[in-house]
Amino acid sequence: MKGALYIVSTPIGNLDDITLRALKILKEVDVIAAEDTRHSSRLLSYYGISKPLISYWGEKERVKSSEILDRLLSGQSVALISDAGTPGVSDPGAVLIRKSLEEGIDVISIPGATALIAALSVSGLSTDEFTFIGFLPAKKSHRRKMLKELSYETRTLVFYEAPHRIVEALSDMEDILGQRKAAVIKEISKIHEEIIRGSISDVFRGLEQTTIAGEYVIVVEGRPGEVRPTTDDALMEVNMLMKKGLGRKEAVKKVAEDYGMSKRELYEKSLGGK
């Protein structure tokens, strides 16, 4: 009989932000696969949990996934945890989850605290629709290219960013996204939690007055609906939809209807026509 893989969300800061169900699972499983065993040991010790630990981070992910998979296939139950939040979401875990599903192993979610939802809820920006981007590319040219593509997105944008890139990221956002409303949430649920709200420029200037450290979530207003889209906007949207797997005709049809444009003209322009 195969074991089960539990995807356990852990606190994103305050150790009290863990569910009773998560604690129950961590106490019952045969082994815990942790992104960083040293980091996770603090959480487990806090709740008096003693279980065999397997390190599961960075370059070890593909190698360790095979070892963990063998345990699952032998009937052992495994809890997968990351340093904070949910494994597989901007954290290691996707490789093991995919392999487990391929082997017919039950993969069970044990939900909990999530930085992107926590940040979005206190940002003051629209939560009706949003797009989670995660971490922007580290290379400046790639980051700016992605931001230019995202500049046409009308839904609220949510990013994660590391302290050593937060200033550069906001600088590029100010340049490309303009004076949209934004919020930067630092160290959610931790002792030095801080929230800066305002225009992107306001947030950028406010950040410069603080100590740059810890984890950041950036929430940015989507493209204002009242801005009249241009042909370039429409072509960018067509390209984005095609990258997501839509055929050219289908992408053009959708964008033309959304933007009130001629499908024929937009299709010709998407081919490079005049």
Structural overview:
With 274 residues, this protein is of the alpha/beta class. It folds into three domains: 4-113, Cobalt-precorrin-4 Transmethylase, domain 1 (3-Layer(aba) Sandwich); 116-220, Tetrapyrrole methylase, C-terminal domain (Methyltransferase, Cobalt-precorrin-4 Transmethylase, Domain 2, 2-Layer Sandwich), CATH 3.30.950.10; 231-270, no CATH class. Helix content is 42%, strand content 18%. It has eleven helices and ten strands. It has helices at residues 20-28, 37-46, 60-73, 94-102, 115-123, 140-150, 166-177, 200-208, 231-243, 248-259, 263-270; strands at residues 4-8, 31-34, 53-55, 78-81, 106-110, 130-135, 156-161, 181-186, 194-199, 216-220. The chain has a five-stranded parallel β-sheet, with helices on both faces. Strands 6-7-10-8-9 form a five-stranded mixed β-sheet, with helices on both faces. Strand 6, helix 6 and strand 7 form a beta-alpha-beta unit. The protein is globular, with a radius of gyration of 22 Å.
Summarize the model shown.
With 274 residues, the protein is an alpha/beta fold. The chain contains eleven helices and ten strands. It is globular and about 60 Å long.
